[in-house]
């Protein structure tokens, strides 16, 4: 192929992929984000009080100072693997709240699930309560749930 033809081909390929990228990203909804436990407290005072007294509210503080930046530890001792969301907050089990926290959505079972509230919060426990935890003591849902029931 002549050099100018190769260049033209490359240009066409570049333009096509650019338009593909913008097409795909315009079709995607904004990703759901974590909004933090304070936002849930406003309407769920009782759940908040139980949570505040639980080990989950102190999970990040429990890490020794030198491990507070260790990503392996943060994956279970924070809400989304970062110290910016310390401890095991509501959204670690219930899912990121950006799209479901408004009153209209929260009151509607169907809507709230479509908006990202995790219907299977009880299944999240074993994501962290497992053998990858250096201090794993075993896990029995009934016994553990009794301790944090809200
Ligand atoms: C504006 C008030 C409001 C805020 C803010 C709010 N909720 Fe709710 N939430 C409600 C109401 C009202 C209900 C339905 C009645 C009930 O169960 O108390 C509800 C129900 C729920 C349920 C039960 C749903 C089900 O399927 O049974 C969960 C879980 C929940 N909220 C979690 C959260 C979490 C986590 C946050 C913070 C990210 C949050 N809520 C923030 C008002 C709110
Ligand atoms: C796979 C998830 C996971 C990882 C990774 C993890 N932990 Fe934990 N950690 C837990 C759980 C769950 C508990 C609660 C203990 C239990 O019931 O098994 C816990 C408890 C603790 C405690 C409280 C003391 C105790 O014995 O209960 C300390 C301290 C701790 N972890 C430190 C660390 C450090 C340091 C790291 C990183 C090297 C780490 N953890 C990594 C899940 C994890
Ligand atoms: C360790 C995981 C975990 C954390 C952290 C957690 N929850 Fe839950 N929550 C659950 C489970 C499991 C249920 C039982 C129902 C289910 O399976 O969804 C539940 C139930 C609920 C319900 C429904 C109660 C009812 O009467 O039906 C509400 C509301 C709720 N949680 C709010 C919160 C709020 C607010 C926080 C933070 C302050 C929080 N949760 C923290 C796991 C968690
Ligand atoms: C994001 C990770 C994560 C999830 C999900 C999670 N936990 Fe935990 N849990 C922890 C960590 C970390 C600790 C230790 C905190 C500490 O000792 O300061 C802990 C501690 C506990 C404790 C205190 C007893 C002990 O051995 O320290 C109970 C009870 C518990 N979790 C129950 C549950 C239940 C029930 C669920 C599911 C509904 C659940 N957890 C989901 C990370 C998690």
Counted up, domains total: 2
What is the strand tally? 0
CATH superfamily of the largest domain: Flavocytochrome C3, Chain A
The CATH class name of the largest domain reads Mainly Alpha
Mean pLDDT, to the nearest integer, reads 88
- Low-pLDDT stretches are 18-27
Order of helices and strands: HHHHHHHHH
CATH architecture grouping of the largest domain: Orthogonal Bundle
Content of β-strand? under 5%
Q: What can you tell me about this protein's structure?
A:
By secondary structure, the protein is mainly alpha-helical. It has 2 domains: 29 residues; 118 residues, Flavocytochrome C3, Chain A (Flavocytochrome C3, Chain A, domain 2), CATH 1.10.1130.10. 48% of the residues lie in helices and 0% in strands. The protein contains 9 helices and no strands. The longest helix has 25 residues. The chain is globular and about 75 Å long. The N and C termini lie far apart (71 Å). About 7% of the residues have low confidence. The site of one heme C has 17 residues, from helix 2, helix 3 and helix 5.
């Amino acid at each position: 192929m002549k050099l100018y033809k190769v260049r033209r081909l490359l240009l066409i390929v570049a333009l096509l992929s650019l338009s593909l990228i913008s097409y795909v990203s315009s079709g995607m909804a904004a990703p759901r984000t974590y909004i933090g436990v304070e936002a849930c407290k406003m309407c769920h005072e009782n759940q908040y009080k139980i949570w505040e007294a639980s080990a989950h509210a102190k999970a990040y503080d429990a890490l020794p100072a030198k491990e507070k930046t260790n990503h392996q530890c943060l994956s279970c001792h924070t809400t989304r693997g970062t110290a910016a969301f310390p401890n095991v907050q509501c959204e670690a089990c219930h899912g990121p709240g950006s799209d479901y926290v408004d009153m209209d959505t929260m009151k509607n079972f169907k809507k709230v699930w479509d908006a990202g509230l995790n219907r299977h919060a009880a299944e999240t426990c074993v994501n962290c309560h497992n053998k990858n935890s250096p201090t794993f003591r075993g896990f029995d849902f009934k016994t553990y749930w009794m301790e944090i029931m809200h």
